[in-house]
Specification:
Elements: H1 11-24, E1 27-31, E2 36-38, E3 46-52, E4 55-60, E5 66-72, E6 77-78, E7 91-94, E8 98-104, H2 105-114, H3 116-142, H4 145-162, E9 169-171, H5 176-183, H6 187-199, E10 204-205, E11 212-214, H7 218-229
Length: about 240
Amino acid sequence: MTDITATAGTASTADMLRLLCDRLCPQRRVVHTGDAIYQAGERFGKLYILSSGFFKIVNLAADGREQVVGLKFRGDWLGFDGIADGHYACDAVAMDTGEVWVVPYGALLAACMQHPPLLQLLHAAMSREIAHDRDSLMSVCTLPADARVADFLRYWAESLAERGMRTDQITLRMTRAEIGNYLGMTLETVSRALSRLARDKVIGFAEKGRRDVRIPDVGALSAFVQRCLAPAAPMLQ
């Protein structure tokens, strides 16, 4: 499996992750599709860094339905939701085979006191999560359905690009129903949005019904979102 320190974005981030590995020697755990590394209500004690693979964060609604509330890529941290009251608030579930680093929270805090760069790493990870949660909420609240799906694909592709992975063809690790659950849409609405994006040649599919999506130009997804947001031209009198 690819070592996270080789592909974690900027050199400074890679250096800090290497420092984390050197100072704490985190346990490495292989996960497979459907594995949960923690579940809602479980006692908090560890944070997790995603070394490879993809995770979804799932919350259980009051009526028992599962709601996808977050997506995690290589280099992301998992488990911040457990810090506040000592118990994890959501489930973290693997969407494919991958590897996580397991970091005891107490040991991390002790190491941060001795090595300030580790504290900077921790704060940066928290800040990125807050910023992404804000952007996701804005997307759900303000974008029409087609733009919401385009923005979701843009985020997925850009997240891969930041980690040095290819973006011209991506494999979605979520079903259309899961995408709809995450974006607050029905499966049918997601399918229609994907079809429109394909008709506009913003994306393509290697094979009908498959999860492999071709993205010739990530910038075209952003442009599509902006066109959906642009006010309609005034009618000529």
